[in-house]
Amino acid sequence: MSNTHHIVSAIKAFNDNYIWALASKNNDKIALVDPGDALVCIEYLQKNKLVLSAILITHHHRDHVGGIEKLLTYAKTKAWPVTVYGPANENIAQLDVTLKENDIVTLTELNCQLHILDLPGHTSGHIAYYNNDMLFCGDTLFSGGCGRLFEGTAEQMHSSLTKLANLPGNTLIYCAHEYTQANLAFALAVEPSNSDLHTYAEQVNLKRQQSQATLPSNIALERQINPFLRCHKASIKLAAQAYTNQSQSSDSEVFAAIRAWKDNF
User: Fold this and answer.
1) pTM for the full predicted model
2) Is 177 marked within a binding site?
3) Any idea what DSSP says for residue 120?
4) Residues 237 and 254: beta-carbon distance below 8 Å
5) Could you write out the DSSP letters of every residue in 185-203?
6) Domain ranges of the chain
7) Longest Cα–Cα distance in the chain
8) Any binding-site annotation on 63?
């Protein structure tokens, strides 16, 4: 999937991770987003004759940071200078540049600028990288779902997801896992009367039958089908109320109810 200046490619890792390779159309330099597995990245670099110039990290979980050390060692053997970017509020040993909300990452060799969004919830210091075309959001927003709450509160995660829902509709979402099919099974349980959701679920099932990626998604689509971005909608509020046998007084309480439901789904 490409935009005007850049090409974004998925490198598959582990069971269902995507490591995103961000390339310029004008040279052989790339940045890698959340390289949990160094070996698949090195294979990708070699096969495509590419030069690693930056690593972008969204949060500290092992399947996102586990490949940094080996990649840096490999880059040294090639005399490639690599800058590692990541969240200021998480303990990740290899970071050269630490980032928080409103910071801007300028990847000069890729002719690319990315804005930083703070997205606490999945982890306490989770960040995303965003520009007008694309969003690298790690484990915060998935297609049809969102990340589990390991360190943050439901209120924080709801606020983070609302921030993402307010981005332009055509923003492409490059999240880190192929969870779409399972997410939509849950979304249909929450909102069975959503026709957009049924249509999308059919498209996703066809893609997965052919082992195709369901990503990137986009913000406009997620606003229509993702229950975690729809906590302000009556249909989701009623579903949360039915699940908990009580009414929720705020959208973040609705979010907490359906997140708990998903955890046990």
Assistant:
1) 0.96
2) yes
3) -
4) yes
5) HHHHHH-TT-HHHHHHHHH
6) 6-263
7) 61
8) yes
Q: Is 126 annotated as a binding residue?
A: no
Q: What distance in Å separates the CA atoms of residue 197 and residue 56, rounded to the nearest whole number?
A: 32
* Residue corresponding to tokens 């997410």: 183
Mean pLDDT by 10 residues, the chain (265 residues): 74 97 94 98 98 98 98 98 98 97 96 97 98 95 98 98 98 98 98 98 98 97 98 97 96 98 96
The sign one gets for the Cα dihedral 224, 225, 229, 234 is positive
Per 3-state DSSP, what percentage of the chain is helix, strand, and coil (rounded to 5)? Answer: 35, 25, 35
Beta-ladder partners of 134 = 172
Beta strand 134-138 with 17-24: parallel, antiparallel or unpaired? Answer: unpaired
Judge whether 5 is annotated as a binding position: no
Q: Is 61 annotated as a binding residue?
A: yes
Q: Is 64 annotated as a binding residue?
A: yes
Q: What is the CATH number of domain 6-263?
A: 3.60.15.10
- Residue 158 marked as a ligand binder: no
The residues, ordered by sequence, that sit 6+ positions from 22 with a Cβ below 8 Å of its Cβ are: 6, 7, 8, 30, 31, 32, 33, 56, 107, 110, 112, 136
